[in-house]
Amino acid sequence: MKSIERESGLKLSGSSPAGLVPKMLNHAAYVTHDTAVTVDFYTRVLGMELACSVLDDVIPSTGDPFPFLHTFFRIADGSTLAFFESPGLPPRAQPTHPAYSIFEHIALEVSSVEELHRWHAWLLENGVSVIGPTNHDRLILSIYFHDPNGYRLELTVPIDPSWNMHTDQAYQNVQLWTQTKRSAQEAGGDPTEALVKVIKAAREQRAKAG
Q1: Which residues partner with 70 through β-bridges?
Q2: pLDDT beneath 50: ranges in the chain
Q3: Could you give the strand order of the β-sheet that contains 27-31, starting from the edge strand earlier in sequence?
Q4: CA 124 to chain centroid
Q5: I need a labelling partner for 126 at 20 to 30 A (CA). Which of 4, 11, 89, 132 fits?
Q6: Domain-embedded: residue 182
Q7: Are residues 112 and 161 in the same domain?
């Protein structure tokens, strides 16, 4: 890791200097314009429990006078997805690029490939449009769909049991991306073109390695 830091000029660290790391995901929160529809989808279709709710006319953390209903849906590991409904909110602005609607998503893990296929069939049975299954570089297998609020969801199962423990390779990829982008910018070139070249080269190397 130290050599990566020297070559890239980045400070890359594998742990907090304070020795702190969050224990688990408690919740991720999003906006809904229809709590009833959201409750039906996450409880009936995705099988989560409506675990908790908060009613208030002021946001406790900021003091903003937004009346809201905050609902939490419990996943099997105890973490939750949460939603706020507040009256009078306008529709969300359209993203400035379609990639935002693809990259930004919520991924939930399932127990097996067989279960992933059962989810695929169940979602289709409930009129939900599904993309996949998609194999991600032999790391995970996933399907994609949208909830009633338009949020992109992913159900995924690891193919590689240690898929989220490839730390050294992750730092190498961060270095490769950062160095390539910086070099292209300093040379007045197109970072996208340069990045595509190194991505293709890396893909060829993985293919040769089997």
Answers
A1: 54, 84
A2: 1
A3: 27-31, 80-85, 68-74, 49-56
A4: 22
A5: 89
A6: yes
A7: yes
Q: Centre a 10 Å sphere on the Cβ of residue 39 and count the other Cβ atoms it contains.
A: 17
155 and 170 in a single domain? The answer is no
For residue 46, how many other CB atoms are within 10 A of its CB? Answer: 19
Q: Is 115 in the same domain as 148?
A: yes
- Condensed to tens digits (0 to 9), the pLDDT of residues 121-168 reads 999 999 999 999 999 988 999 999 999 999 999 999 999 999 999 999
Identify any residues that bridge with 23 across adjacent strands, giving them in sequence order.
none
Average predicted confidence (pLDDT) for the chain: 93
3-state SS class at 161: coil
Q: Are residues 146 and 185 in the same domain?
A: no
Domain membership of residue 76 as a residue range? 26-86
Structural domain tally of the chain?
A: 3
Q: Does the residue 200 lie in any domain? A: yes
- Rounded to 10 deg, the angle between the 167-186 and 191-209 helix axes is 150
Tokens 């199962």: give the residue: 157
The pTM score is 0.90
For position 207, what pLDDT does the model report? 83
C-alpha 89: how far from chain center = 25
